[in-house]
Write a structure and sequence with these properties.
- 4 copies of one chain form a homotetramer.
- With 304 residues, chain A is an alpha+beta fold.
- Chain A folds into 2 domains: 151 residues, 3-Layer(aba) Sandwich (Beta-lactamase), CATH 3.40.710; 130 residues, Beta-lactamase (3-Layer(aba) Sandwich).
- In chain A, 45% of the residues lie in helices and 12% in strands.
- Chain A is built from 13 helices and 10 strands.
- A 5-stranded antiparallel sheet of chain A has the order 3-2-9-8-7, with helices on both faces.
- In chain A, α1 runs antiparallel to α13 and α5 packs across α9.
- Chains in contact: A-B, A-D, B-C, C-D.
- At the C-D interface, α4 and α8 of C face α4 and α8 of D.
Chain lengths: 304, 304, 304, 304
């Protein structure tokens, strides 16, 4: 199978979709990203790398950061984490407060915003400098010392993130935040502001396709059991309230962000990342989801 | 009818209920109020006053303040107010965020917390010093220049009021707060911290039984139409998610607060206030509601 | 006050609204009623009668029948009724199943469909022939032996009433129906199909304004306490999810039906009925609600 | 890997759990099944078969039948099916009506009861005798001509299935059933009453692990794409509101029934079935889920 050629064909094929999505506009930094950006990269566990389009250009990874914070929280807190956050799909929008009220402040899973705030709170309770630690983990995983937060983005999120603030105070009212809401939000917004390229993201999540071993360093990031857990969470909860559709069409564990990035992994084989800023109604990259669907359809590779 | 004697009989009759309710405990200042406090006062529009028990002792009026802020907001904004807050019963707890999300940030009515925050925001947009104005209105209405905020209570609410903060940021996320959430909350918590006695509250709300004229000053607080509007809102929305039960048992427009006070009015005739700190499951004074029920049953007086 | 003249002025004034509402169309019999029908009648407790427009023409009273079935169920079951149905406003559409599921099959109040089904079930458990008894009560109350069900309407409702059937089976699944759902529905649909005129409805509900005594017969229909209870339920729950708005604008206990009728009572004074088939978004007669609002505004008469 | 030995070890290991679950008791036929039944079977796509415990004993497959009716409906209706039923996890109990009301009668997925009723309706609109066709498909798939409905079970379900009836009428009220609710329910209850053994179920679903080819007959049941779709739906929606937990612990697409059976597939490799009647709080076999978890943990085999 000629992966490179397949990626190139897909790149051409989804071009007409680039302007059908809506670029996120709630902060100026995201709104300013050109809608015609499109990149795709794939890394295999045995070292091959494929890249097309804007695969080397950095973008705001946003919710994709939830993979890294969850990884860290699982290392720090172990199974105790699941007393404070569930692992079921929510069936509701990522920023909904309804379920949180019905379920007494325990977020459904770590990939909706409320869950990620609890995950961040767990990290903050274990570490003096959560932000630097998260950034460092990502740097080590992708082997790039200059991966960093975009402080303008973080500040914009802070200034406009009323809904996330509501969520943090709501969690606090249920005693499901140990730290001050403002401190949790500050860390959370920083993690979301990380900027990385498709190539870097592929590298950074490759341990999820490699039984927990980071190929670059050879380090064991987590046990193979824990990797299976994260992959199952990605499949059932990773793409907002479109997880069923994503599993149906793409068939791989994946995580999307409102910056237009999506990472996916094929356990035992490879990681894959696509970036295109135009989003569909569920908040996932429209052309990006299509590109992943074409990839698994054309190659016949999926977990199903 | 010997009102004084009826009140005295009721006072004796509800004594056994004083310890069946739960004194609010979310802030130390409320938790410290003795459960056996019990007062009741009635003022007629033609000047008669009746009082029994602890009717002259001041307590934290809490949500009863929502009558005064609504009155002020109706004076300031007129019907435009109803574009930002509804006038339907919510059927949900007073501090629920669920309905707010389903209904895109428009609170059901001005007497649930979310609605009162919007009402406070409206006042803040019209007045430089909302807190002082609200306090002054109350002072004039009850004719006591020393009625004041309890700053310790206001600070305690601020320190523990995570749910109200969540609500304010949630409203802001729907663009239904014009001012900064922290500023709205500060004013809101101050209004709730007003301390007044049954006698003072009866005086202060008597305009609602008197076609809008404050008997003390002779001032027209609002038009008779507006008074009817407030009374209808009190009847359908004034006692949290127990409005139906309250209307059924008491049959008067009324407003309760978690400090254990309840005011009620009989349009054209009198205002009535009871105070007993033990609350029932809905957050209304348990013995207080019973006392009002006994009063309307015994006298045969109600709007129905 | 010249009541007759006021009614005539109002009749003229709301004419332009007759075609702004939507005539109920879910069954052909209701859909066929001309939108320009408009009648209004008022009866005082001391025997005066006023009528304008189509006040003598019969129409499908639909949910107004819930007053009569509740009256009967309160006579038959007393306070035990409230173990099976609540008395709080629902805050949801009249035919919603959501709250019913959250609250384990106990309807919020007797005036939403689910509550009326439980009320009907209670009657069926006490009486061999519920339908005939309800019809007879209505006949006696309004003094017209030929008031009857419209069997074509009842059959149409039965054929199309999937949502009411869903509700009945849902109640049964929570063990809150003792009789077979089909039997309860049959009685329910018959009660709703009663046809009466404004004049007849005014007569039939006049006991609610007269301390429980039916003026025609001098019979005591219920105690004055029970009358107060029904009036309070009408005010807080009688007009679907527009009770707050109705109380605000009209200020009288009232009950509406999708046939376009609305009855209202001023306790101690009179009953009032208006009919105009065009409905507003909440399912209440659009011109009818306006007519009632004009009446209480112009006369200054309301419970507030 | 010695599969037979692993299954035997697991059989022994979960014995202590047999009495921790609750055997379904809503109909006498299910309530009568001994709680200590336990069977497990596995079939590989290349013909190997492993079985332990009560793997050859037939039980009521209940919701596992939803796999077969979905398979048939996808063959009959193709992608048009998804206009009437979604493919997202519901996040609510399998028999909830709440989401159905919020989402205007479109069930979230084909594996909750409402979705399966729509699937059954689709089949009924295409076939004269849906029940016989579904039974025949199952017979052919598992190669046993005597697999049959348990008519006593079907009748019991019909007599007590008020909630399912409510659901069917609710769907009808949203025009999302073409056939009469009673007819749809009759077929649905029959499908659920099929009795099969673990060994038979493994055979019957093996096409899902074999790219759509039924190994017994060599027939193509569906395309390999369609198989991937069903497997993705099983993983994201197959085990009620515990899909996340099931994916996390077991890591295989699976479907459970209240009879205590669970089938799971490892695409490309094998099908697996376990039966133990005691259910956990989500309605999945308690010991059965544990047995599957032990299997994938011990063998290291899962889709993740």
């Amino acid at each position: 199978m000629d992966i490179q050629q397949i990626l190139e064909e897909i790149l051409a094929e989804v071009q007409p979709l680039l302007h059908q999505g809506q670029v996120a506009s709630y902060i100026p930094q995201l709104a300013a990203v050109p809608a015609d950006k499109l990149g795709m990269a794939l890394r295999t566990v045995d070292g091959s790398v494929y890249a097309v389009g804007d695969a080397a250009e950095r973008f705001s990874i946003q919710s994709i950061s939830k993979i890294f914070t969850l990884t860290l929280a699982m290392q720090l807190a172990g199974d105790a984490l699941w007393q404070r956050v569930g692992r079921e799909p929510s069936g509701n929008p990522f920023n909904s407060l309804i379920q949180l009220e019905y379920e007494n402040g325990k977020p459904r899973n770590p990939f909706i915003n409320a869950g990620a705030l609890v995950v961040t709170d767990v990290i903050l309770s274990h570490l003096d400098d959560a932000k630097a630690t998260v950034r460092n983990i990502v740097r080590v995983l992708c082997g790039k010392a200059d991966v960093d937060f975009d402080l303008t983005v973080a500040r914009s999120e802070q200034a406009t993130g009323h809904r996330n603030k509501a969520m943090a105070y709501f969690l606090k009212s249920f005693s499901n935040l140990d730290n001050e809401p403002e401190r949790v939000l500050d860390a959370y917004f920083h993690h979301c502001s990380l900027t990385m390229s498709c190539l870097e993201l592929c590298e950074a999540v490759l341990f999820l396709a490699n039984n927990g071993i980071a190929p670059l360093s050879g380090d064991m990031v987590m046990s193979s059991s824990q990797v299976k857990y994260i992959n199952s969470l990605l499949l059932t909860c990773g793409t907002y309230d479109a997880v069923g559709d994503f599993a149906y069409r793409v068939g791989l564990p994946g995580k999307s962000g409102v910056g237009g990035g999506i990472v996916a992994v094929m356990p035992g084989h490879f990681s894959l990342c696509v970036w295109s800023p135009g989003l569909d109604a569920s908040g996932n990259s429209l052309a990006g989801t299509k590109a992943l669907e074409l990839f698994t359809t054309r190659t016949g590779i999926s977990v199903f």
